[in-house]
Specification:
The protein has 15 helices and 22 strands. By secondary structure, it is an alpha/beta fold. The radius of gyration is 24 Å and the shape is globular. It binds flavin-adenine dinucleotide and nicotinamide-adenine-dinucleotide. The site of flavin-adenine dinucleotide has 36 residues, from helix 1, strand 2, helix 2, helix 3 and strand 4. InterPro entries: Class-I_Pyr_Nuc-Dis_Oxidored (IPR050151), FAD/NAD-bd_sf (IPR036188), FAD/NAD-binding_dom (IPR023753), FAD/NAD-linked_Rdtase_dimer_sf (IPR016156), Pyr_nuc-diS_OxRdtase (IPR001100), Pyr_nucl-diS_OxRdtase_dimer (IPR004099).
């Protein structure tokens, strides 16, 4: 007999958990289906272990950058302690704590691989191979995340390269590591493994962090090189072969790199085999409307089917996915109870910030923190843009924070409306500055009002004042 719930959520990553939680808080019953660990990629193989692994190196460098503290740093990182701390943050890859949370939130869990098998219907293949059929009274939410892409480079698969999963599960540090890719994973993990003592080479086929303001990749790249990373821009791997314990990688600039391990950091792809053809849809990244309902081939929303988080590829970041999840869970409940739906720009049930104010932090060292649009993206979107830059190192708060602090901040102003369209901060420990910018962008705070938001002295936030001074104070008419 099929089991019935108001809402079925496929995938218990951070996004699926939040869709289910909001639906339950909205008075509905919910079940999540999970075939690995409750908590998803983010908790066990991505955000959490990577940040836990990166922080000790960053903390050590922070102490080394302050005269007086520097003298107290007498050794290097304790690699096994760093790995152990990482393992504690993922609870030894055991999801008992997260399962307990699901129970406390009133959400049922079915273990196994789920697929859509008809309208409002999901079939789950359990760990024992048995099948269960679940039926949803109101909605099915596909929150199945993404998986790493392994590019089609001859010999690469046979060399059994690391993806983020193996890299973040590792119990030992390879003697040498070749990273393929120039995005966020590459920028973060190249530095992380260099801190742990690996000899790291990075092959970037274009530029580092190409979706960000150009100075972000330049500053992160220069810092990686200072830490001994061999960063090769505009270079691609053409073949890989195994030679004893080594991987031999041939590159398109004629060079050969011999390493003990290869890490692919070349992006993500959607989960396969989600059964969507059973309801006339194609697989792949799932396009959605502003309330996260999947769009069919005609661009019309499928009334009962939602795709949230990485699965829709709007803004593949945990916090943006959880933001979507709050909107999706709430709108599913609103529709189920026949309550009004608020799906206009910045509406309660619309994930507007995905387009206008996605926030991101690259936890490289220096960090890159960005919200909204880059200058190039704003121009491409047809905005009349003015760009204001400031040297973050010239602010008193930064000089006190670290000797010789270097950093840069860019404010992208939408001149038509006199508001900020995007901000990027690059520098040590700038992540916590970002939310001020997110509030300015989402609140569409006029620049002349920002003069009344007074940054405390001497903090790095004084860069806001410097940016406003460079932009110019308005004169009353
Ligand atoms: C190395 C790395 C570091 C990252 N660091 C950050 C960071 O610092 N900050 C940040 O915001 N983002 C970060 N990200 C991105 C972040 O991990 C994702 O955006 C986030 O995990 C998306 O959450 P999700 O719930 O959509 O998907 P996931 O976390 O991928 O969860 C999906 C879940 O669905 C399950 N599943 C899939 N298919 C099925 C099925 N058919 N049946 C049952 N279950 C299924 C999976 O097992 C998984 O548990 C990082 C990514 C990587 C690779
Ligand atoms: N701090 C964070 O928020 C954080 C950290 C890590 C990852 N993430 C997210 O996880 C996702 C995955 O990150 P990622 O770095 O793997 O992807 P990405 O899309 O950020 O970068 C992929 C990189 O691989 C390169 N590439 C793609 N195919 C290639 C090929 N065949 N050969 C050589 N290079 C190739 C691209 O040019 C790009 O430089 C992203 O959405 C990212 O935002 C977020």
């Amino acid at each position: 007999m099929p089991e019935s719930y108001d809402v079925i959520v496929l995938g218990a990553g951070p996004v699926g958990e939040n869709v289910a939680d909001r639906a339950v808080q909205g008075g509905l019953s919910a079940v999540v289906v999970e075939d690995r660990l409750v908590g998803g990629e983010c908790s066990y193989w991505a955000c959490i272990p990577s940040k836990a692994l990166l922080r000790p190196g960053e903390a050590r460098r922070a102490a080394l950058a302050v005269d007086g503290a520097r003298q107290g740093v007498t050794g290097g990182l304790d690699v096994s302690a760093v790995l152990e701390r990482r393992t504690s943050f993922v609870s030894g890859w055991d999801d008992a704590g997260q399962v307990e949370w699901l129970e406390s939130a009133g959400i049922d869990l079915v273990r196994g691989r789920g697929r859509v098998s008809g309208t409002r219907q999901v079939t789950v293949t359990g760990p024992d191979g048995g099948e269960r059929v679940l039926v949803a009274r109101h909605a099915v939410a596909v929150c199945t995340g993404s998986r790493p892409v392994v590019p089609d480079i001859p010999g690469l698969r046979d060399a059994r390269p690391w993806t983020n999963r193996e890299a973040l599960e590792t119990q030992e540090v390879p003697e040498s590591l070749l990273v393929i890719g120039g995005g966020v994973v590459a920028a973060e993990l190249a530095g992380g493994f260099a801190d742990l003592g690996a000899r790291v080479t990075v092959l970037v086929r274009s530029t580092l962090l190409s979706g960000y303001e150009p100075f972000a990749g330049e500053r992160v790249g220069a810092a990686l090189e200072e830490r001994g990373v061999d960063l090769r821009l505009g270079v691609s791997a053409t073949s890989v072969r195994v030679d004893g314990d080594e991987r031999v990688v041939e590159c398109d600039d004629g060079s050969t790199v011999r390493v003990s391990q290869v890490l692919v950091a070349t992006g993500r792809e959607p989960q396969p085999d989600l059964g969507l053809e059973s309801v006339g849809l194609e697989g792949g990244w799932l396009p959605v409307d502003e309330t996260l309902r999947v769009l069919d081939g005609e661009g019309e929303p499928v009334e009962w089917l939602y795709a949230v988080g990485d699965a829709n590829h709007r803004s593949p970041l945990t916090h943006q996915g959880k933001y979507q999840a709050r909107a999706a869970g709430d709108v599913i409940a609103a529709r189920a109870h026949g309550r009004p739906v608020d799906d206009g720009r910045w509406g309660v049930h619309a994930a507007t910030a995905d387009h206008l104010a996605p926030a991101q932090v690259v936890f490289a060292d220096p960090q890159v923190a960005m919200v909204g649009m880059t200058a190039a993206a704003a121009e491409e979107a047809g905005l009349r843009v003015r760009v204001v830059d400031h040297d973050l190192g010239a602010v008193s708060g930064a000089a006190i924070h670290a000797d010789g602090y270097t950093g840069q901040v860019r404010m992208v102003v939408d001149e038509e409306r006199g508001v900020i369209a995007g901000m990027t901060f690059v520098g040590a420990e700038v992540a916590e500055l970002l939310h001020s910018a997110s509030i300015a962008v989402v609140g569409e705070v006029p620049l002349d009002r920002l003069w009344h938001a007074v940054p405390a002295f001497p903090t790095m936030s004084e860069v806001w004042l410097r940016l406003l001074e460079s932009y110019g104070r308005p004169h009353p008419a």
